[in-house]
């Protein structure tokens, strides 16, 4: 069964495009604000790779729905959710790493400064960066992901303790504003979505098998499209809300950077402007969760981004 010309599918596809557009804007900003980690004497940059890959996952969801392979679409929707949360977990870990403490810097560069002290400082920095001496277990778990060793048998503990959707939420909630935001605005959304996705991924009943056989399913396809779209958009909105609270610069309009690159004085405070496409998403979908969520993000994002 092909649903390309089905009215419900057309609406579904159009709205799914709004999530893709949001991730596309965020990925451009993520590459501008990329995080890094040094492990095994290599530098790994984390930009918008997760976000571009997630756009492709949404295209796969769309294709599955077009063909009526709804169980597969739900499985991909869970991958979409997990990958976006993993991205938040990774950038928050990289943001909070303590490669070199301020007090160490003060000791090395205490007056008077001479060439021997500068050389000693450079060597100390290099030793700390390359050795990973200051990294905790969470940092090393992320390094294992970045250098593609996480799948190895000896990294089983890392996978078990850090790489799972519930674990991502647990660590992200160590940020008080994220914790309050999640508990107040997304806890119920998460529980409902998590149960639904698990039922499809693990095929908890024959109905979930029949969901991949639309010609034999007794559930209207319009309900399938509505539920999958709701899961995708709730996931995207939750991701955006947490991102704004931990890395608000990712929603910045590029006007400020464009001016700097063109040697044009930027408009005062334009570094706090929100990209128009992101503002539109906020006005439609963030407000759709709860109008108070928009106020929360405007008032508590740590960079003071001007969410209208």
Question: How are the SSEs placed, and which strands pair?
Answer:
Blueprint: H1 7-32, E1 35-39, E2 42-46, H2 49-67, H3 70-95, H4 102-108, H5 115-131, H6 137-146, H7 156-162, H8 165-172, H9 176-201, H10 206-210, H11 221-246, H12 255-261, H13 276-289, H14 291-300
Antiparallel strand pairs: 1-2
Helix content: 55-70%
Overall strand count: 2
Please indicate the percent range of residues in DSSP E strands (runs of 2 or more). Answer: under 5%
- Rough outline: globular
Structural class: mainly alpha
What's the SSE pattern? Answer: HEEHHHHHHHHHHHHH
Q: Output mean pLDDT.
A: 88
Largest sheet data = 2 strands, antiparallel
| Radius of gyration from the alpha-carbon trace, in angstroms | 22 Å
Low-confidence stretches: none
Separate helix tally? 14
Number of structurally distinct domains: 1
Biggest sheet strand order reads 1-2
Structure description:
With 308 residues, the protein is mainly α. The protein has one domain (7-97, 135-300). It contains 14 helices and two strands; from the N terminus they run H-E-E-H-H-H-H-H-H-H-H-H-H-H-H-H. It has helices at residues 7-32, 49-67, 70-95, 102-108, 115-131, 137-146, 156-162, 165-172, 176-201, 206-210, 221-246, 255-261, 276-289, 291-300, and strands at residues 35-39, 42-46. It has a two-stranded antiparallel sheet with strand order 1-2. Strand 1 and strand 2 form a beta hairpin. It starts with 6 loop residues before the first helix and ends in an 8-residue tail after the last helix. The mean pLDDT is 88.
């Amino acid at each position: 069964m092909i649903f390309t010309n089905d009215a419900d599918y057309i609406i579904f596809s159009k709205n799914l495009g709004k999530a893709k557009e949001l991730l596309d804007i965020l990925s451009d900003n993520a590459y501008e604000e990329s995080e890094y980690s040094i492990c095994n004497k290599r530098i790994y940059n984390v930009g918008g790779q997760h976000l571009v890959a997630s756009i492709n996952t949404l295209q796969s969801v769309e294709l599955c729905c077009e063909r009526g392979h709804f169980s597969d679409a739900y499985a991909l929707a869970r991958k979409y959710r997990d990958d976006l949360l993993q991205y938040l977990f990774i950038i928050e870990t990289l943001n909070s790493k303590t490669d070199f403490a301020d007090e160490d810097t003060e000791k090395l560069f205490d007056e008077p400064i001479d060439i021997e002290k500068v050389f000693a400082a450079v060597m100390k920095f290099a030793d700390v960066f390359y050795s990973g001496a200051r990294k905790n277990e969470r940092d090393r778990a992320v390094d294992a992901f970045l250098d593609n060793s996480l799948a190895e048998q000896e990294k089983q503990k890392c996978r078990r303790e850090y790489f799972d959707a519930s674990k991502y939420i647990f660590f992200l909630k160590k940020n008080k504003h994220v914790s309050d935001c999640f508990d107040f605005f997304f806890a119920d959304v998460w529980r409902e979505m998590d149960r639904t996705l698990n039922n499809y991924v693990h095929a908890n009943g024959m109905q979930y098998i029949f969901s991949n056989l639309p010609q034999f399913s007794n559930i209207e396809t319009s309900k399938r499209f509505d539920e999958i779209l709701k899961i995708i958009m709730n996931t995207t909105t939750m991701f955006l809300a947490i991102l704004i609270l931990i890395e608000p610069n990712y929603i910045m309009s590029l006007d400020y950077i464009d001016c700097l690159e063109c040697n044009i004085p930027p408009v005062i405070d334009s570094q706090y402007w929100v990209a128009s496409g992101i503002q539109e998403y906020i006005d439609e979908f963030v407000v759709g969760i709860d109008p108070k969520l928009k106020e929360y993000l405007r008032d508590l994002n740590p960079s003071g981004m001007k969410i209208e």
